[in-house]
Amino acid sequence: MKKQYLLLIGLTALVLLYCMVSFIKGDIFKMDNSLAVTDSTWLAPSIYADNTVSGEERKLVIYGQDLIAHTAKYLGPKGSVAQITNGMNCQNCHLQAGGKAWGNNYAAVFSTYPKLRDRSGQIESIYKRVADCMERSLNGTAVDSNSREFKAIYAYIKWIGQDVQKGQKPQGSGIEKLAYLDRAADPKKGQVVYTTQCASCHGANGEGQLAPDNIEYAYPPLWGAHSYNDGAGLYRISSFAGYVKNNMPFAVATHKNPTLTNEECWDVAAYVNSQPRPHKDQFKDWPNYSKKPIDFAFGPYADNFSETQHKYGPYKPIQNFK
Ligand code: HEC
Ligand code: HEC
């Protein structure tokens, strides 16, 4: 009996040793492609592992990261600095403080701004882009460009994108674009997806759930008075569908192993974005109608397709018309 034990322990030790050695040599990674980190998908840096940033700049980067991750603590309805946003965190949509590949990250912000954006028809700075999300996604008011809060967010965005060359967008930055369906996205089918895959966290009425501190959300709202308004990026169902594909259900779906099919993503996006939410006056947006995204829900358009078809599709006829 004892001898058998010893043999077993010895064998296990040998196997472990073999695994460790091949792990260090990288053999395991080479053998199994699913583990390989060989593609060029963007990886966010960690400020705690980065000792090249010090002093005031370091304080700003760390504060900036916290502002993205816990926006409501500072700027939500019970915010300690100001009460100017709806209680959501930037991180609710920019996962891992904007550091997650395929999670609507900030990899390509510092490298591509300032840039011409068709929504405003103007060259936009990082400040303008951040202000946009505060006024639309957080349905609130933007912080001042001279505030310590904006300086911190700017320092963080600059720092997190430091390894990306000017003009470049690394693999996995922003939100994935899903192929268009041949049919319109269907809110009725989406409701079934919502009930079975999303409601357990986001609530039967999309209202989300506050954390025990009553300041931040444990599960952010998807519609209703406390959600993003209809001028936000997620109100376009292509953005919503692409975000959900790689990231929801939270902590389950990944880019490599998405939970939902493309069809389910489009349909659940149609369902959620057909529910009530705050309205933003957008009459000044998209001064050039022909630059409006296909799935922008509000006319006038440079074509004769209806608002309903622009919002839900089918998009291919519109695309072919352009
Ligand atoms: C409700 C979801 C949501 C929230 C909350 C949110 N954003 Fe966004 N944000 C988006 C979407 C969607 C986009 C557009 C992504 C795209 O089209 O690729 C975007 C884009 C951006 C961009 C430009 C990214 C790029 O690569 O061009 C920045 C910068 C940004 N957001 C900052 C913020 C900040 C700072 C906050 C918090 C104050 C915030 N966002 C909160 C959804 C959100
Ligand atoms: C296990 C709980 C859970 C499930 C299930 C889940 N989510 Fe989420 N969802 C979250 C959490 C948590 C966040 C915020 C992540 C963060 O702040 O880091 C989030 C964020 C979001 C956001 C961006 C923030 C917002 O409120 O607009 C969208 C959109 C979203 N989820 C859609 C969905 C959809 C659609 C489904 C179903 C297919 C789904 N989620 C299923 C937990 C969940």
So how many helices? 14
Class from secondary-structure proportions: mainly alpha
Q: Flag low-confidence runs.
A: 24-38
Give the number of domains. 2
Ligand names: heme C
CATH-level-2 architecture of the largest domain: Orthogonal Bundle
Strand content: under 5%
Give a short synopsis of this structure.
With 322 residues, the chain is mainly alpha-helical. The protein has 14 helices and four strands. The protein has two domains: 114 residues, Orthogonal Bundle (Cytochrome Bc1 Complex, Chain D, domain 2); 119 residues, Cytochrome Bc1 Complex, Chain D, domain 2 (Orthogonal Bundle), CATH 1.10.760.10.
Report on the structure:
This protein has two domains: 47-160, Orthogonal Bundle (Cytochrome Bc1 Complex, Chain D, domain 2); 187-288 and 305-321, Cytochrome Bc1 Complex, Chain D, domain 2 (Orthogonal Bundle). The protein has 322 residues and is mostly helical. The longest helix has 24 residues, at 2-25. It is built from 14 helices and four strands. The strands form two sheets. It has a two-stranded antiparallel ribbon. It has a two-stranded antiparallel ribbon with strand order 3-4. Residues 24-38 have low confidence and may be disordered. It has helices at 2-25, 27-31, 55-69, 71-75, 95-98, 109-112, 126-135, 148-160, 187-197, 199-202, 237-247, 262-272, 307-312, 316-321; strands at residues 115-117, 122-124, 209-210, 217-219. One heme C binds next to helix 7. One heme C (HEC) is lined by residues 68, 71, 88, 90, 92-94, 104, 106, 108-109, 129-130, 133-134, 137-138, 153, 174-175, 228, 232-234, 239.
